[in-house]
Amino acid sequence: MEKDITRIVVLDGYTLNPGDLSWVDLRSLGVCDIHDRTRPEETFQRARNATIILTNKTVLDGDIIARLPRLCYIGVFATGYDVVDIQAAARRGIPVTNVPEYGTDSVRQMVFAHILNFCHRVAEHGEGVRRGDWSRSQDFCCPQYPLIELSGLTLGIVGLGRIGTAVAEIAIAFGMNVLAYNPSVPAHAPAGVVLAMDVETVFRQSDIVSLHCPLTPKNQGFVNAELLDLMKPTAFLINTARGPLIDENALAAALDGGCIAGAGLDVLAGEPPPMDCSLPIARNCVITPHIAWATRAARARLMKTGMDNLKAFLRGEWVNVVNGIGMKG
């Protein structure tokens, strides 16, 4: 099969490698066309002669896959692979691979960056010092926002997979109580984690709720007005999972109406968000631009595992295949 591989096309390599990593390993495997990003109307033209396509967020739908007669492999440089019509690829006998684990540490770090931001307001206090607020203060201590201690508070986790479990470990180290809901409940909860019978209990009882579940047709927009209304007015919502899990208009209304204290988001339903998105201007809503996964260390692991998937395919093996297709000899 290796002799048949003639052209490798990377559709959107910039977010994975903005210049601090190397494509040398990939270039050693064949003729490469590496694009920083690809608009939908450009996808077919760029992919038409490809035998291997590597993508992160550029969509490969069934129509495009059907029109690529030389295509024999699709590699997704991500854990989520909903950008590829895997059934269409399967009908063609084309394996689709993903990278199931690369960013756990980076993402859980971002979760607590948002949590600790609400607890201590480091940037705002630092800016106050820069403005001279502390210099003008009559006291040695000049807090400008309420400060929050995590020990003894309850962190609610929705989705107890790799990242959710890793987040729980940090929460426990901070002395927090951890309450988790998982649609497919594991036989035993990790040490220190209490399993809730339903998601409503998590939202009702938690001081902070963090989302770590995959996006499915059934849970799109499940964080709605009714669920947000269950939260304590002092509670915070964190989302580093998928933007469409949240009804954004409902969240903006809950924030502006004081139903909850704040939200820390790294993902939105539309990315980049439209100019009329309601959340960037909502009260006490802190948004980072989908960067939880993007530390250099995580991107290096992502690239390495993606390359390992491809090299295995070229050897006549297959790993991390998500659509049930094996190597055809």
UniProtKB/TrEMBL annotation:
InterPro entries, A to Z: D-iso_2-hydroxyacid_DH_PdxB, D-isomer_2_OHA_DH_cat_dom, D-isomer_DH_CS, D-isomer_DH_CS1, D-isomer_DH_NAD-bd, NAD(P)-bd_dom_sf
Keywords from the UniProt entry: NAD, Oxidoreductase
Signal peptide: none
Residue ranges occupied by any D-isomer specific 2-hydroxyacid dehydrogenase NAD-binding domain in the UniProt entry: 112-292
Keyword Protein biosynthesis: no
A Pfam family of this chain: 2-Hacid_dh_C
CDD domains hit by this protein: 2-Hacid_dh_4
Family: Belongs to the D-isomer specific 2-hydroxyacid dehydrogenase family.
This protein's name: Glycerate dehydrogenase
